[in-house]
Amino acid sequence: ICAMPNDKSDTTKLDVLFLLDTSSSIGEAQFQRALKLVVDTVKEFRNVGPDGIQVSLVQFNHEPYLEFSFRKHNCKPQLLEDIADTTYMKGVSNLGNAINKVAKFGFNKRRGDRPDADNVLVILTDGMSDDKIQQPLQLVRNNGTAVLVIAAIEARPELVRELVGHRESNIFNLSDALDRPLAERLSQRIRESQLDAMPPFSSVIMADVTESVTVPSTVLSAVSTETFTTEELPYTVTNEAFATEEHPDATETVGTISEVLTSTTEMRNVSEIMREESVTTTASSEPSTQTVPA
Q: What are phi and psi of 34, to 5 degrees?
């Protein structure tokens, strides 16, 4: 039973895939900040499931890793918990490879993609990639997928401009990711993407991050494997055998997740912040009751 029933008055019907850069160049602090932004953005939607917004989450370094597909969630609280449990992994950044495989296998009927719902790809990246992105981008655009980018422009801003076809509208600051208004604006732009009449649609949300990020001086070589490793599966599968079985256990990851950089230098758990928000909201409406997370 879902703790928060869907609000059918929210008629937004989209398949939204968040593609998170989890490479070493972006750093864990920025990754956690971006992850919190994703959580807050999804909170803005009130109808999650087959007749509303569907969300898929993929993170990438040398390969994309599928956290969950479109068909997994129709309950918003469970979806938010799943996002918050995403693990930072480090590694090289093969954005072109990730976009290519997401276009082919992420937005796929077997993964829950709906023919009557527009597709939106939200790319979270620092503007660095160790492989080519031109052909994968063309594939996405040919499919009519709307592309939104949240980018920390520190190393290669020209790549970000290439991602969006030099359409530099809707500029936001990732350093404000803990502020709700940024999530509200991002969610509104996602909603508006289904109204764009002429594909390919492309928009950029570019982040001017205030804290410095250390980029490795040694350029890591790109991995040439053609496999698509998925967090939903206990094993690696090839492109042709892109499987649909979901697996609850994370595999082949490095480090632990769920910390968000606050206004100080401490790191906090994303799930903990979500619980605190839940308690605060409940306390304001019912002073004698506190929400206890399941």
A: -65, -40
Distances, alpha carbon 129 to alpha carbons 160, 272, 288, in Å: 10, 32, 52
- Please tell me the pTM assigned to this model: 0.72
Alpha helices in the chain (DSSP H): 28-43, 76-84, 95-101, 134-142, 157-163, 180-193, 270-285
pLDDT tens per residue across all 294 residues of the chain: 899 999 999 999 999 999 999 999 888 998 998 999 999 999 999 999 999 999 999 999 999 999 999 999 999 999 999 999 998 999 999 999 999 999 999 999 999 999 999 999 999 888 788 899 999 989 998 998 888 888 674 646 677 777 766 655 544 657 655 666 889 988 998 998 866 533 444 444 544 433 333 333 332 233 223 334 444 433 233 333 333 334 344 333 323 333 332 333 334 455 555 666 655 554 554 444 443 343
How far apart, in Å, are the Cα atoms of 115 and each of 41, 143, 196?
Answer: 24, 12, 17
C-alpha span between 101 and 21 (Å, rounded): 14
Tell me the angle at which helices 76-84 and 270-285 cross, rounded to the nearest 10 degrees: 140
Beta-carbon contacts of residue 191 (< 8 Å; ≥ 6 apart):
12, 14
Place of tokens 């992994």: 89
Domains detected in the chain: 14-285 (3.40.50.410)
The whole-angstrom separation of Cα 16 and Cα 29 is 24
> What burial letters (b/e) apply to 258-288, b meaning 16+ CB within 10 Å?
bbbbeeeeeebbbbebbbeebeeeeeeeeee
For residues 251 and 86, give the distance between their C-alpha atoms in angstroms, rounded to a whole number. 11
What SS3 state is found at 173? coil
